[in-house]
Amino acid sequence: MIQVKNLYVDLGDFQLQDINLTVDEGEYFIVLGPTGAGKTVLLESIAGLYPVKSGQIWLRGKEVTSLEPEKRNISIVYQDHVLFPHLSAAENILFGLKIHRRPKQELVKVLDWLSDLLGIAHIMDRSPDTLSGGERQKVALARALSTKPEVLLLDEPLSALDPETREGVQKELRQLHNQLKVTTIHVTHDFEEAIALGDHIAVLGEGCIKQVGTPEQIFHQPNSEFVAHFAMARNIFTGEVVERDDGSTVFRTEDTELEVVTDLRGKLHASVRPEDILISPEPLRSTARNSFCGTITHIADRGSTLYLTVNLPPDFICLVTRRSCEEMRLTKGQKVYITFKASAVHIF
Amino acid sequence: MIQVKNLYVDLGDFQLQDINLTVDEGEYFIVLGPTGAGKTVLLESIAGLYPVKSGQIWLRGKEVTSLEPEKRNISIVYQDHVLFPHLSAAENILFGLKIHRRPKQELVKVLDWLSDLLGIAHIMDRSPDTLSGGERQKVALARALSTKPEVLLLDEPLSALDPETREGVQKELRQLHNQLKVTTIHVTHDFEEAIALGDHIAVLGEGCIKQVGTPEQIFHQPNSEFVAHFAMARNIFTGEVVERDDGSTVFRTEDTELEVVTDLRGKLHASVRPEDILISPEPLRSTARNSFCGTITHIADRGSTLYLTVNLPPDFICLVTRRSCEEMRLTKGQKVYITFKASAVHIF
Amino acid sequence: MVKKWFATNNMTITFILLGGIIFLFIIVPLLKMIVASDPKILLDTALDSEVINSIGLTLYAALIATVIGFLLGVPLAYLLARFDFPGKNLVEGLIDVPIVVPHIAAGIALLFVFGRSSLAGKAFNLIGIDFFDSIAGIVIAMLFVSIPFMIDSAKEGFKKVDVRLEKVSRTLGASPWQAFFKISIPLAWRSIVAGGVMMWARGISEFAAVIILAYHPMVASTLIYERFETYGLDYARPAAVLLILVCLISFIVLRLLLYRGQKT
Amino acid sequence: MVKKWFATNNMTITFILLGGIIFLFIIVPLLKMIVASDPKILLDTALDSEVINSIGLTLYAALIATVIGFLLGVPLAYLLARFDFPGKNLVEGLIDVPIVVPHIAAGIALLFVFGRSSLAGKAFNLIGIDFFDSIAGIVIAMLFVSIPFMIDSAKEGFKKVDVRLEKVSRTLGASPWQAFFKISIPLAWRSIVAGGVMMWARGISEFAAVIILAYHPMVASTLIYERFETYGLDYARPAAVLLILVCLISFIVLRLLLYRGQKT
Q1: Do B320 and A287 count as a contact with CB atoms less than 8 A apart?
Q2: A residues 20..79 contacting C (CB < 8 A)
Q3: What's the pLDDT score for residue D8?
Q4: How much is the pTM?
Q5: Domain containing A196: what range?
Q6: Cβ atoms within 10 Å, residue D220
Q7: Which residue of A326, B119, B234, B345 pairs with B260 in a disulfide if CB–CB is 3.0 to 4.6 A?
C-alpha cells in the first residue's frame, strides 16, 4: 500500500499542490491528466527521484519521504523506455539483480521467468537501439519487474507505441497485472486507456487532484467541468463482450446488449460517439444493427446542435441538428428510437 | 508556363526518375505524394536549388536547367516558412527587392500591397520568432510574392498549421491565386487539400509520376493501386454549397443535393465516409437529413465487411457488415435507400 | 520536509571536494598574485614604457593575426560547414594540428619555412617583409597556433545556419556573395566573433613559437621571461600581473559585449 | 546535364583559394620540415640519450598531469553537467581562464604560489615535494594550462547522458556511486578519453609555464629551445621533427583507438 499525503512539488513553471492518494496493495491505479500536468514529476517524486517541497509519502505503513530511491524498492518505466544503451537487453534486465549481487543461478532464473512472461527470449542479446518500440517497452518492463518491486510506476507506457501495437500491449499490461498483482501506478492522458485499465482513477489537472474514484464514478459522476471534459465526449459503458448463440458478437451491460464488431472478448468497455446515433419516432429497418426504444429525459441546447439524453436505460447522449429536432418535434418525455451501426461501437 | 522533361534527381536513398510535368501559365498545379516521396527535392530542383542528374527544365519556352536560381524568378515557400530570423517581417518581405536595388517608393508600394493583400500590416515590425504559425506563413508568402515571380512553389504550405487555421489559409490560397493568377506548384500529402485547390494534380510515388489529371480524373479514374489508395477511402463529389429558400444549407452536384452543416459557400467538394452510410429497404424517418433511393450496382466482398456501390446517381460506396447484408438479403440490382446525417458530410 | 536527493549524498560531497581542489588550483595562483601586488609598484610598472610597449605590441600583433585569421579562416570554415568531399575528415583533423603540436617545434617549423634562408622567406623579403625578429614573425607565430579556434568556431556557427535560408535568398535574386554576406555572415556572426576573441586571446598568450621567430621586438611574454631570467621572480611579477589583468579585462569586456549583442 | 549550383560559382572558387592559403600555411611548415629531414640525422637524434630522456620526460609528466586532471576534473565536470547553482556561469568562465591567460604569466603565478619561498611550497616541501626545477613543477605547469580541455570535454560527455538513466538505475537499487560508475562513466567514456587525449597533447606542447617553474629537468621543448639558442636552427631541427612525429603519431593512434571503440 502506498499513501501520498499533502504532497507539494515545485516544477518551476507551476506546482503540484495538496496531492493526496491512497493506492491499495495489488491495485492498478491510474493517474489521468492532460499533457504537461506534471504526471511524470509526480511519479518521480513517489520514487524519490524528484525533490519534494512538503508532504509525505508512506509505503506499507512506513514514511519514505526522505529515503534514498535505491532503498524504496519502487520501479519506474518511462514513456520512452530509457534503456541503458551500452548494455544488451538481458544486461538491462539483470542490472538491478547484479547491483544487489544476487547469485548467478538466481539471475538465470529471473531472466528465464521474465523472458517467458513477456515473450522476449529471442531478443535477449540484442542492443537496445536495434529493438522496436514494442520490444523496448517490454525490456523496460522486465527490467522494472526484475527486482520484484513493491510498487511499479508506469509513465504513459502506451503513448510511444503506434496504434496497432497499443491495443495488444494494453491487454498484456492487464494480464500481467492480473498475474503478478504488483501495486501499479500508471499515468496517462488517454481517457479510454484509464477506463480500460484502472481499478481506481485519479484525475490530475491544474496542479491538483480533481477527483479520485472507480472508472464508473469518473465517467458517470464527474465532479467538475475539468473531469467532465474528459468524460463528456462519449457514451461509455462497462460490460462484457460475448458471442451469442446466433454467432453475433454483443457487448452485454447490466441493462442492454449492443451488437459490436470486435475480436476482443471478456469484461471490457464500450463507447459510442453522440454524433453517430440516429433518432427516429419509429423503429428503423436498416443495416444498422443497434436500435433501441427510450425516453428523452434531457435536452441541452448548443446553438445549431442539441444534445439529447435518451434513457433506455442506460442513458445515451445523442447529437442532433436543430433543424432535425424541430422538424421531428422532439420534446422532453417523448418516446424515440435510437439507432447506430455495430461498427460505431468502440470496444476497449 | 513551366515544363519538366525527363527529370532525374538523386536523393541519396532513392531517385526521382522520368519526371515529366507541364504546368500552364496561371495554373494552380498540385503534386500529391506521401511523406518522403521527394516532393521538396522536386521543388528545389525546379528552383535550381538542388542538382539535377539529367533532364531539362523549361520556363516560358527557355531552357533553365543550368541557370542560377537567382536568375530564374521562381519563388519558394517552405513548409516551416524559413524566415530570415535576423530580419523583421517587413525586412523579410522586402529582402528580394532590396537585393534588386529597387527605388524606395517601390518598396513602400509593394509592402503596402502585400500587407493589404494578406492582412499582415499590424505585424510588419515584429521579429519572426514572435509570430504565430499562420502569421509566419503569410510573411513567407508575401516574401515569395514580393519579386513578382513567374512561378510560385509551395512546399506543404498547410501541414505546419493547426487544423483550425488550415481551412482558412486554404481558402485564402485559393482567393490569392484567383486574384494574382501566378503559376503555382503546390506539393502536399493531403488528398482533400489537393482536390480542393488543384487545377491539375500529379500523383508522385515510388520515385516517379503515377498519374496527372484534373481532380475529377484522379478520384474517379485512378490508374493504379497507388493512386486508388489515396482516393478509395471516401465518396468524393464536386459541386456547390448553396442556401435553399427554406434556410437549409445544401451541397448541390449535377445529380443530387446533400444537406450539410458548414459555413463555407461556393464551388467546393464534399466527402462521405462509406462507414457513415446506412442502407435500408424502405425510406427511414429519422434525424438523418440525407436519404436517397438507389440501385446496388456492385458488391465487393472484404470478409466480415462488404463494400456496396449504390447508384442514385451518383455512385455511393457504402460499408456494411456481412450479417446485415445477409439479414436484409441485399443483392445486386436491388433498390435500397441510403441514409446519412448532414454532419457526416465533410465539405472542403 | 524539503529534500534534494541529488545534493546530499556522500558522492556529491566527495565530488565537490575533489572538484574544489582543481577549481582552487586554477584560481588561487591568479587571484593571489593579483591581490598580493603592491598597487604602487603595479602603477609604476604600468607607466614603464618598456612594459607598455611590449603589451601594446602583443595586443597589436595578436589583433593582426586575428584579422588575417578572419579573412582566410572564415571562408574555409564556410566550405567545411556546407560541403562534403572525400578526405574532409583529414582536412578537419589537419586544421587542429597546431593545437597539439608543441609550440617550440611549431616555431622551428615556421622559421624553417619563413626564415631568411628559406625560399618563402626570400620571396617575402623581395616585397619587404622579413619574418625573423620582426612583427611579421610574431604575427605568423600567433596566427599558426591560434587559427584553429577561429575556423572551428566559425564552422560551428555556419552549421547552425539553415542552408535553406541561403536557398530562399537565392530564389529572391541574391547572388552567392549576397546570400553569404546578408544571410550567412549575420546569422553566424556571434560564433565568428567568439572565435575571433578566442583567437586573439590565444595569440596574446603565445610565447614559445614567438620567441623562436622573434625574440625582438619583445612581446609581453618575452619581456616577463627576460626579467624573470635576469632579475628573478619579484621583478617579473608586476609585469605578469599587469598582462594577466589586461588579458582578463579585455576578455571579459569582449564576452560581455558578445552576450549583450545576443539579447538585443 | 549534371549541375551543382553550389560548387561552381565564383564565390566558392574564391573561398577555396582563400581557405587553401590558410590550410597550406598550417600543413606546409610541418610537412616540409618532416620531409626535408635527413633520415640518418633523424635516426642519430633518436638515439641521442639527451633527446630520448627529454621526450620521455615530457610524455611522462604530461601523462601524470592528465591522470591528476582525470581524478579531479571528471568529478567537477559531472557536477557542472548535472547541477545548477548560482554563479555557475562564473565558475565555468573561470575554469577556462588558463586557456586565455598568457602562459608565461601563468608560470609566474604558479611559481609565486608553489615556489620555495611560498606557504604552499613550504608545506609541500615538508612531505618531500619541491615544485622548483623538478618533475612536480613540470606536472603542475602542464596541469594548469591543460585542465580546461578535460573538464570541458567530460562535461559535454556527461550532459549527453540522459539523467533518467541514472534515475532508473537508482530505482533498481544502485547507490549514487554505482549509478556513476556503471552508467554515467561508461556512457561518457569517449568524451572523457577525448578530453584526456587533448589534455595530454596540450601538456606535451606546453613550454612557457614549464620553463618558469622547471628549466631543469629539461622537457623536450626546453631542450629544443636550448639547442636553438646555443647552436642555431639546423641543430635544433632534428629534435623538433622527432618531437612533432612522436606527438602526431601518438595523437593519431589514440584518436583511431577512440573511433574504433565507438564502432564496436
Answers
A1: yes
A2: 48-54, 56, 65-66, 68-69
A3: 66
A4: 0.81
A5: 2-225
A6: 28
A7: B345
